[in-house]
Amino acid sequence: MTTWPRALATTVLIATVAITPAAVHAEPLSGARYVALGDSGAATTGAVNLDPTAPLRCLRSTTNAPALVAQRLGLTLDDRSCSAAKIGDLFRSQGPEVAPQLDALGPATEIVTLHIGANDADMTSYILGHCHAGTITGGCAAEADPQWDTEIDAIAPHYAAALAEITRRAPNATVFVDGWPTYLTNASCPAMLGLRPADAAYIQSKFERLNTVVAREARSHGAVYIDTVTASRDFGMCADPSTRWFDPLLADHTLLPYHPTPAGQRGVAELIVAAIEASTVLDH
């Protein structure tokens, strides 16, 4: 009978332990395959089709753009978008029962959609408090406040940090960032309650400045930026009510002015689907 040296026997024992079933079947990778992050631009269609399983404060809709994208592509969605979210809410809890949005990410995540930043730039306060309030004092275009540009530009480092953290938590994901569509052109309408045409164009210029900041950061961090302005040019808040992508000040679809209508969510979803299909993320 041959006697193996003790060192060889030990090596065989270690090798046997290494291939036991418990070692072969590793833990599944964490994270949903498709994760949606963002604020009300992604979360809601206002009072339409609210998701009763989502935190009430998020006003998340079952027919928002992320839900439509998931349905179209046959993906399981973890939608963390939430109304009033700021970039910091990606990292922290926005309130009771609202976990940090980035908690949904993991190595198994392959697709991330991101739409956030308008609340950080204080767009609502400037639009309502400066432009719409200015309909009786002269208008916001005539009395431009340079601080608005400063606040828009200031989101850049925070947005960059968020993109870097998304990549760290979901290293196998492709990130798709959709910008802000056309809200207004150089014309106004009765549904905007006296907003001057010059102020309408001024408001749209601020959304396009916000798009410029976000697009630059997205591309510099390897994300896919999706332009939504061009496709929505004829569907702003003064378009026909049956086709417009956003509710005007007299919000007759969603009860939320400057928020997407069901048509708007469908339009954005189509652009996101096209961007995802044009990438290689679904080829494996």
UniProtKB/TrEMBL annotation:
Keywords: Hydrolase, Signal. It holds the Pfam family Lipase_GDSL_2. Residues 36-266 form the SGNH hydrolase-type esterase domain. It is an enzyme of class 3 (hydrolase). GO terms for molecular function: hydrolase activity. The keyword Repeat does not apply. Its EC number is 3.1.-.-. Residues 1-26 form the signal peptide. This is SGNH/GDSL hydrolase family protein. The lineage of its organism: Bacteria, Bacillati, Actinomycetota, Actinomycetes, Mycobacteriales.
